[in-house]
Structures are given as structure tokens and as C-alpha cells.
């Protein structure tokens, strides 16, 4: 309670302070950090006061009802939960046991069915062995073979044909054909005997067999009627039959062919079934057994059975007692090496058993094995069939194995209904009180939602600001620390700053430090401006502004350090263009847009323009850069949008702030979609700032060349703005970002502690064999996208190797072009180089250099652990960023890079 009173008092005092601050005309001169802290405190107080207001005096009146209602609900929930749990448990156990029982019955019946198929197949194998034993000595007559066939049929064996296939050398072919021709002419005159037949290359129909070293013709076969087309068919004339013959003779065991469309007459539709369905047959070939009395003549001849798969299924299911369906697939036919992943369909049958025990067989068309996986219940088993494996899938038919759940569901329902009735009885005692208090509970819920919404909004705003500060403050502080280390090293010499060059470098370092500190102050101010601009609380001080001298020329002065390849232009029409606006905010917008252009324009121009369009003042910033991708234009002015460069560096707050500032001044900012720079392959970008105010006449009592500030240098230090990829310092060369560093570091180095550690930069320490001094003359190429990093890195190395020469490249493509005409002793290669368009990674550049025959020693650089990536593509060493700046540590690191 005391803490609540103290907090309420604090918030009341803060309210008075806020009123004072918001009515203060000199608001922009307050400390930005203090203003931001005050605003966060205000949000916290608003949330606290709203929460206390929503939980006022009616809480006591509701408390007793809530306790009673909560108790009643708890009892009802327990009753319903207990009854529901009992009901579900009863049903679940009953259903599970019923399903398990039916599932067990099904799998037991399916296994019995599979065993019947195996038993039926074993009968065929046994019969084939007996046929071979009867025919192997070659003395069997055709009449005796006919008697053997009749014995097999009388034994209940169902097959299409029984055959004996002797091994016939070509020298015996004529004798065999003469004997057969005479036999068929006498006993089967309707047979057009043509001798030994086979499948000749290039012919689809059977034809007389060409001369071969040997044959395996179907010389003995019964019955003849219906099988005339297979008389004297050479089993060694088609690929599938040749494989089966070789398998039987090589293994000395029975072998079976893959599925076959049996040889038939032109009038026959299907030799295996009378139904118009897909039905296949197989040929079982038996080489007989090795007899001790005839060890040198085995294996030679074959006994074979032509078996239809539907016949096999019929034999296995003719005494079936429950309805089911069975599918047979040849698993041995699946060959992933030949892109044959689906086993061959052999046959399928549906067996329907009525109440009287009558069995009806229905044969199915071809069905793939994978399509059967979606069945709710199925039994699958692979069985060996001679030299092959068949997969048999058995599935239930209709509702044969459906569990009986009537009594299970009825019992569960009774249990649940009893529980519901008991819960309703309890509920009836409290329903009147609940209705009476419904409105109060609803109002309470709405208040709670409002409080939660406000709290979330405050938390989100605070998180966004914290993320922005953490990103933006770190980089300039790191740059200031690096510059401080240089100044510190310079002034600690025995004769500090004795020459003009040393003094000039110290002045530049102090400028970096000064700009970094000013940047932090202006960053906090801009951050507060962004927050207040979004809430329409930022004040705009409009005054008479000379567009050319107060806006365009100061921005031009801050952007002019871009090198000879980028031309910075100013166009103001008319030259003495005046307008009533906030010159400070307008400069902030134009400078931000100009810095965004400066990031991505490597050559060409950046043009700052002002003109009068349709009687209103319009400013624009246009360039000859690579342009903005179409997919990023939709969210170009969104807060914290994705950065424009490919590596997504920066918070993306710059254009959002520009948009808010222009809107506060009553204007509009947009991207000109129709702009084209005129430079080949560089479409460029043009931002339009429409002030939506007419120009005013120049003042008669002031000179035409008036400026807003006393000098450009002062403005350059005071006006830091947030760019789209981060905030830039106005110091020369700092064009893209401030680089991270630690104490005693420069933008590309690691700390001294890292250099002295047992394993520095991902590689082992130097051994005693490494030289203690650096070479006097080396040519070095530094590849990094950041000009400031390249500058500081070169300066750092010059402190320990003043005679080395340096060459710089901003990306991998430039480095490859340079190495075509110049040779370097050492190359430092950064990993990531940001750009609007895709640039080569450091590893890609190193790999390409090695392909082109560059023999230089290459050291990869990155703030991330990329040692393995660099070494794998041909780099000789790797170093972590940042690089050490202290003399001893830098010397050790360079020696490691050169000699480790």
C-alpha cells in the first residue's frame, strides 16, 4: 500500500513537470537523454494510473461473488471432468479392446491365408520335382507323359500346362523336330507344327528359332489343346525366361519367372481367367535333384509348370470362412537402379463368404502396392517363391472385421449424462447470481483488455527505442575509441607530434572523436524527435529560408568528400528561392537523403535540386546509383524497415524520420518511380520533397548570399542525422558505417588479449621458428567495403611496417580486376561486402583468385568465425576483426599471418 502511495505521488509530481516542459518554448535545448527518460516515465505513470482507476471501489462488492462463483464453477468443472473422464475412459478402453480383438482376428486369418498360398505353391514345386524325376532319363514316351498329366489333374492340382524342357544341342534339333512333327500330324492334325519357335530380335511374334548352340524347347506338354501356341517354344529365347533358366541351372534349385502374359492364340482374350481383368501367369522351372548315380549329368533338363496366379489364389481361398481381399506383388521386380520402384502386380482376388458358407471369387484389375498403404487395416507379408519374393497384402472386405461398439458407447453415454445432470443441478443454484453480475464482469474484462493493450504499446515502443540506441551508439563509440588509441600512442612517444604529418593525423583523430561524441548527443535528440514526430508533438519553427544557401550548399559541403568519380551537383531555380519553412528540419531531411545516395553511388553524380512546380516549392535528391529494388519500395518509409543493402545493415529509421519531418512541415515525400539517371545499367534513384507552400519574395534588407550558419565546418559537426543503413559521421571517408572496436583497437583489428591467447583468431600460436621481425618491403592489397576501415587498417600497419605499400579495393570484383595487372605479397580479404546488388563474398573472391593463378599469401578477415570457409577455398590464414592496434600485439598478429 505504501509503495502504491509513493508511486502515485511520484507520478503526480511527474505530471506537473511534464506540463512545464511541454509549454517551454526552448524545448529543443533540453538534454535529449533526460527528455527521453521523462517520456518513458510518463508512459509508466499512465499505465499505473489507468490500472488503479480500473480497480476502484467496486472491487470489494465483486470479491464475495467471485469467490462464491469460483467455488461453484470449480465444483461443476470437477463433476463434469470426472464424468467426462470416466465416460471417455470407459469408451476408450472398450473401443481399444474391441479393435484389438478384431485386429487380432484379422491378422490371424490373414496369416492362415498366406500359409495356404505357401502350401499351395509347395504342391506345385513337389509336382515339378516328380515330373523331372520321371522324365530325366529320356526314355519316357508321350503316352506315358499323358498318363503322368492325368495323375496330376486327378490329384487336384490346377495348372495351365505341365511341361518337360530338354537341353537340345543344335546337332540334335532336326531329329527332335522330325519326331515331334510326326507325332502331331498323327494325333493332332489341326496343329500347324513349325519346329522350335522363339522370340527373335526385332520380331514381336513367335517365329522359327534361328540357329543357336542349344535350345530348351517345350517338347513334352499336356494338355495340348489350348496350348498349341507354346509347342516347341524355346525358353532360352526371351530375356525373362533366360534369367529363370540360368537361375535354376546355376543354383540347382527351382526358379520362377517374373509375371508373364501367357502365349495364346489370336482368338483368346485371357488364358488365366474368364473375366476381363488383368491376370498374369508364371512358369515354375525345376532342375531336379542331384543323384549320386548320375553326378555328371545334372543339372541339364527342366520340368516346368505354367501356373496362373488367379488359379493359385482360388486354390488358397476355396475353403475361406471370412470375407477378405488379397493382392500379390512381385517384390523382386522392384529395381531402384533401373528406376523401377513399384513391384509388379501379379494378381488380386476378393473372396465373399455369405451366411451359408458359400464362397464367391471376384478378381481385380491391376493395383499398385503403394496404393494399399492407405488402408486402415491390412496385413502384409513377404514370402519366398523359388528364387523370388512375393509380397502378399490382405485387407478386410466391407465391415467383416468392424468392432461391435454399441454397448460400449451406450455405457459411456449413461455415465456422462449422469455427470451432466449433477452439474446442472449445481449450476441451477448459482445461475440467478451469475446473471445479476454479468454486466459487472463484462465491464471488468473490457477494462483489463484496455490496460493490457496500453501496457503492450508502451513496452513495444520502449523495446524499439532500446534496440535503436544499442545499434547506433555502439559504432561511433567504437570509432572514437580507435581514434583515441592513435592519439594516445602519438602523444606517448619520446618526441610527440614533432612533424606536421603527425600533428595532422592527430587533428584528424580528434575530429573523429569530436564527431562521434556529437553524434551520440544528436542521435538521442533525433531519437526523441522521431518519437515525438510520430505522436505529432514535435514543434516546427517556420522562418524565412534561403533554399540555396541555407539548405543545399551546407548539405553539399558535407557530402563533397566522395572522390573524383562521383560528381556532386546543385541546381536551384531560381537561385534566390525563398520559402517559409523549418530550415533545420529541411536540412536534416536533405542531408539524410544525400547520405543514402552517397552509400551506393560509386561513380556518376548526386544532384541536389530545388525548383517551383505548379506554384509550390519542391526539392529533390537524385543520383546515378543502382536504384531501389521493386520489392523494397512498398515498405520504403516504414519504421525499422529492411535495410536497402543486401546485408541488411542499419535500423532503417532514416526514411521513416524524413517522412515524419516532412509531414510535420505540411509537405510530402515520395520516390519518383519514373526517374532514370541516363547512366547505362544504373537506373538511379530520385526522392521528391514537396513542401506544398509557394515561394516568397527575397527580403529587401538582406544580401542575396546570406547563409544559415557562420561556417560550414560548424554545421558539419552539429548536424548528425540518422541514415537508412545507420548514422554517418561527417568525417572524411566515413561513408557507410562506424566500425566496432574495443579498447586499444582500430576498425579492423582484434584486441591485444586475443593475440596473446593460446589460440588466436582461430589458428594455433606461432612457434619458435617464426621470425621475430617483419619484412621491410611488402606490397599489400586490402579488400573491404568500408573506406574508414581500410584507412584505419593501413595506418595501423604503417606503425609497425612503414615501408610497406598499400593498395585498396572496395569489393571482390575490384580486387580480381586489380590482381590481373598487379602482383601483391599479401592480401587481406573481408568476408562480407554490402551493396544494393549481390557482391562476391570474400571466400568466393579467394576461390576465384586461386583459379586465376594468384600466388599471393591471402588472409581472410571477419568478425564471425569463418576460418574453415576461408582455408577450404585456398586462403593461407585467417584473422578475426577487430585487428590489434597496440604495437606488440599488431607485430605478433602480422607475423602469425605471414608465417604460421
Structural summary, described in words:
The protein is 44% helix and 16% strand. It contains 20 helices and 30 strands. The strands form nine sheets. It has a five-stranded antiparallel sheet with strand order 6-1-9-8-7, with helices on both faces. The protein starts with a helix and ends with a helix.
In short:
With 900 residues, this protein is an alpha+beta fold.
User: Rg from C-alpha positions?
Assistant: 47 Å
Q: Total number of β-strand segments?
A: 30
Q: What is the typical, i.e. mean, pLDDT?
A: 78
Largest β sheet strand count, sense and barrel closure: 5 strands, antiparallel
| Helical coverage, percent range | 40-55%
* Major sheet: arrangement of strands: 6-1-9-8-7
Low-confidence stretches: 1-36, 46-57, 642-651, 702-768
Cα end-to-end separation? 68 Å
The quaternary organization reads as single chain
Which structural class is indicated by helix and strand composition?
Answer: alpha+beta
Contiguous helical run count: 20
Shape, principal axes of CA atoms = elongated
Topology at a glance:
Elements: H1 2-22, H2 32-54, H3 58-135, H4 142-154, E1 161-165, E2 168-169, H5 173-187, E3 197-198, E4 207-208, E5 214-215, E6 220-222, H6 239-251, E7 255-256, E8 281-286, E9 302-308, H7 309-317, E10 324-330, E11 344-353, E12 359-363, E13 379-385, E14 388-396, H8 406-428, H9 431-491, H10 500-534, E15 543-546, H11 547-559, E16 566-572, E17 578-581, H12 583-600, E18 604-613, E19 616-623, H13 654-664, E20 668-671, E21 685-690, H14 712-718, E22 722-723, E23 726-727, H15 752-756, E24 759-760, E25 763-764, E26 779-783, H16 787-798, E27 805-809, H17 812-821, E28 826-830, H18 842-851, E29 857-862, H19 867-872, E30 877-880, H20 887-899
Parallel strand pairs: 16-18, 26-27, 26-28, 28-29, 29-30
Antiparallel strand pairs: 1-6, 1-9, 2-5, 3-4, 7-8, 8-9, 10-11, 10-14, 11-12, 13-14, 15-17, 18-19, 19-21, 20-21, 22-23, 24-25
Amino acid at each position: 500500500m505504501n509503495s502504491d502511495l509513493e508511486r502515485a505521488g511520484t507520478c503526480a509530481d511527474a505530471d506537473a513537470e511534464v506540463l512545464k516542459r511541454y509549454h517551454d518554448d526552448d524545448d529543443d535545448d533540453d538534454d535529449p537523454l533526460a527528455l527521453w527518460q521523462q517520456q518513458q516515465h510518463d508512459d509508466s505513470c499512465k499505465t499505473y494510473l489507468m490500472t488503479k482507476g480500473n480497480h476502484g471501489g467496486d472491487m470489494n462488492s465483486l470479491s464475495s461473488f467471485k469467490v462464491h462463483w469460483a467455488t461453484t464453477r470449480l465444483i461443476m468443472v470437477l463433476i463434469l471432468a470426472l464424468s467426462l473422464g470416466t465416460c471417455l475412459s470407459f469408451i476408450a478402453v472398450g473401443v481399444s479392446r474391441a479393435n484389438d480383438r478384431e485386429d487380432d482376428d484379422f491378422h490371424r486369418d490373414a496369416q492362415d491365408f498366406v500359409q495356404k498360398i505357401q502350401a499351395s505353391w509347395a504342391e506345385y514345386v513337389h509336382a515339378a520335382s516328380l515330373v523331372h524325376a520321371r522324365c530325366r532319363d529320356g526314355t519316357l514316351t508321350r503316352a506315358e507323359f499323358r498318363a503322368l498329366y492325368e495323375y496330376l489333374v486327378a490329384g487336384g492340382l490346377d495348372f495351365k500346362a505341365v511341361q518337360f524342357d530338354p537341353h537340345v544341342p543344335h546337332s540334335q534339333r532336326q531329329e527332335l523336330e522330325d519326331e515331334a512333327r510326326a507325332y502331331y500330324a498323327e494325333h493332332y492334325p489341326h496343329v500347324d507344327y513349325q519346329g522350335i519357335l522363339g522370340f527373335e530380335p526385332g520380331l514381336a511374334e513367335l517365329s522359327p528359332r534361328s540357329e543357336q548352340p542349344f535350345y530348351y524347347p517345350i517338347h513334352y506338354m499336356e494338355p495340348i489343346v489350348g496350348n498349341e501356341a507354346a509347342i516347341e517354344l524355346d525358353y532360352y529365347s526371351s530375356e525373362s525366361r533366360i534369367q529363370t533358366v540360368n537361375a535354376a541351372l546355376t543354383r540347382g534349385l527351382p526358379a520362377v519367372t517374373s509375371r508373364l502374359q501367357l502365349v495364346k492364340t489370336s482368338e483368346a482374350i485371357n488364358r488365366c481367367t474368364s473375366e476381363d481383368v488383368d491376370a498374369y501367369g508364371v512358369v515354375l522351372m525345376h532342375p531336379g535333384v542331384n543323384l549320386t548315380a548320375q553326378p555328371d549329368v545334372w543339372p541339364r533338363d527342366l520340368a516346368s509348370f505354367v501356373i496362373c496366379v488367379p488359379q493359385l489364389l482360388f486354390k488358397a481361398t476355396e475353403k475361406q470362412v471370412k470375407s477378405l481381399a488379397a493382392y500379390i506383388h512381385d517384390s523382386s521386380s522392384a529395381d531402384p537402379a533401373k528406376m523401377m520402384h513399384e513391384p509388379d502386380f501379379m494378381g488380386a482376388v476378393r473372396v465373399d463368404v455369405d451366411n451359408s458358407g458359400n464362397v464367391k471369387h471376384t478378381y481385380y484389375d491391376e493395383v499398385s502396392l503403394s496404393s494399399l498403404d492407405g488402408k486402415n487395416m491390412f496385413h502384409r507379408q513377404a514370402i519366398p517363391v523359388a528364387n523370388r519374393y512375393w509380397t502378399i497384402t490382405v485387407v478386410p472386405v466391407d465391415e467383416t472385421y468392424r468392432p461391435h461398439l454399441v454397448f460400449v458407447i451406450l455405457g459411456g453415454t449413461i455415465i456422462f449424462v449422469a455427470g451432466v445432470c449433477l452439474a446442472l443441478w449445481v449450476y441451477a443454484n448459482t445461475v440467478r447470481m451469475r446473471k445479476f453480475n454479468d454486466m459487472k464482469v463484462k465491464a471488468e474484462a473490457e477494462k483489463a483488455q484496455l490496460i493490457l493493450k496500453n501496457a503492450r504499446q508502451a513496452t513495444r515502443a520502449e523495446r524499439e527505442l532500446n534496440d535503436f540506441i544499442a545499434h547506433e551508439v555502439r559504432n561511433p563509440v567504437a570509432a572514437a575509441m580507435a581514434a583515441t588509441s592513435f592519439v594516445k600512442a602519438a602523444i606517448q612517444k619520446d618526441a610527440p607530434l614533432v612533424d606536421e604529418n603527425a600533428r595532422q593525423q592527430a587533428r584528424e583523430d580528434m575530429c573523429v572523436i569530436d564527431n562521434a561524441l556529437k553524434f551520440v548527443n544528436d542521435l538521442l535528440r533525433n531519437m526523441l524527435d522521431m518519437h515525438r514526430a510520430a505522436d505529432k508533438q514535435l514543434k516546427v519553427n517556420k522562418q524565412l529560408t534561403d533554399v540555396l544557401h541555407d539548405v543545399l550548399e551546407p548539405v553539399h559541403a558535407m557530402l563533397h568528400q566522395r572522390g573524383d568519380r562521383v560528381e556532386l551537383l546543385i541546381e536551384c531555380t531560381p537561385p534566390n528561392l525563398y520559402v517559409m519553412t523549418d530550415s533545420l528540419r529541411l536540412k536534416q531531411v536533405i542531408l539524410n537523403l544525400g547520405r543514402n545516395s552517397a552509400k551506393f553511388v560509386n561513380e556518376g553524380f548526386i544532384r541536389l535540386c530545388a525548383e517551383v512546380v505548379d506554384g509550390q516549392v519542391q526539392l529533390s535528391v537524385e543520383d546515378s546509383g543502382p536504384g531501389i529494388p521493386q520489392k523494397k519500395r512498398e515498405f520504403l518509409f516504414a519504421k525499422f524497415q529492411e535495410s536497402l543493402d543486401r546485408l541488411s545493415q542499419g535500423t532503417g529509421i532514416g526514411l521513416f524520420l524524413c517522412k515524419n519531418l516532412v509531414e510535420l512541415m505540411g509537405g510530402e515525400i515520395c520516390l519518383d518511380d519514373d526517374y532514370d539517371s541516363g547512366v547505362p545499367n544504373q537506373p538511379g534513384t530520385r526522392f521528391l520533397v514537396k513542401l506544398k507552400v509557394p515561394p516568397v519574395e527575397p527580403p529587401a534588407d538582406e544580401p542575396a548570399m546570406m547563409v544559415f550558419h557562420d561556417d560550414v565546418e560548424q554545421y558539419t559537426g552539429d548536424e548528425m542525422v540518422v541514415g537508412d543503413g545507420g548514422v554517418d559521421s561527417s568525417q572524411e571517408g566515413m561513408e557507410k558505417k562506424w566500425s566496432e572496436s574495443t579498447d586499444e583497437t582500430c576498425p579492423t583489428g582484434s584486441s591485444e588479449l586475443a593475440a596473446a591467447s593460446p589460440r588466436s583468431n582461430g589458428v594455433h600460436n606461432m612457434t619458435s621458428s617464426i621470425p621475430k621481425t617483419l619484412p621491410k618491403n611488402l606490397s599489400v592489397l586490402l579488400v573491404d567495403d568500408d573506406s574508414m576501415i581500410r584507412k584505419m587498417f593501413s595506418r595501423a600497419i604503417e606503425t609497425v611496417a612503414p615501408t610497406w605499400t598499400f593498395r585498396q579495393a572496395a569489393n571482390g570484383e575490384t580486387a580480381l580486376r586489380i590482381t590481373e595487372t598487379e602482383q601483391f605479397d599479401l592480401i587481406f580479404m573481408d568476408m562480407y561486402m554490402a551493396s544494393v546488388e549481390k557482391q562476391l563474398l570474400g571466400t568466393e573472391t579467394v576461390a576465384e583468385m586461386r583459379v586465376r593463378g594468384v600466388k599471393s599469401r591471402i588472409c581472410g578477415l571477419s568478425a564471425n568465425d569463418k576460418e574453415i570457409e576461408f582455408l577450404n577455398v585456398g586462403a593461407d590464414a585467417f584473422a578475426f576483426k577487430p585487428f590489434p592496434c597496440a604495437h606488440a600485439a599488431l607485430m605478433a598478429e602480422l607475423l602469425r599471418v605471414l608465417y604460421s
